[in-house]
Each structure stands twice: as structure tokens, then as C-alpha cells.
Structure prediction request, 79 residues.
Amino acid sequence: MIHMRPQTEGNYVEYEAEGKLTEEEHERVFTELKERIHKYGTIRLLVVLPEFPSIEASAVNDRLRFAKEHLSSSTSTRL
Prediction:
């Protein structure tokens, strides 16, 4: 399960994920993120993982496709 946390405001987006994440949840989150990117140009994203979640294999491809579409060489990423 993944849900947007109440701290989300403007271009700052915060999610919390726990348990098994489905492909449908990933699609919902990607749609929400795309809407915010379209509205604000850039976003700050935080994903809280109380435990490392398991995912469906098909969701990995969706994540990589989303990252390729929305991350440019001018975007810096901090871990």
C-alpha cells in the first residue's frame, strides 16, 4: 500500500509505502506525480519506507520508464 502523506503541499510531495505495492498503485502515484510536475515544473519527492516493500515484477519496468521520462541530466539526485 502507498499513500500520499498529509505533509504534501505544492511541489513538495511525500508518500509512505508499506507492504506489497501493486501495479495499480504505481500507476496512480505516477499519474499524481505527472500532474504535479506539469503544474510546478519540478517537484521534491520523499518516499518513507518503514519497511522495505515488495513489488510486483511488472512494476519495476514502470518505475524505470517513469524515471527515464521525467529525470533529465540537469536533475540532481541525493540518496
User: Anything to note?
Assistant: The two ends are 23 Å apart (CA to CA). The CA atoms of residues 21 and 34 lie 19 Å apart. The longest strand covers residues 12-17.
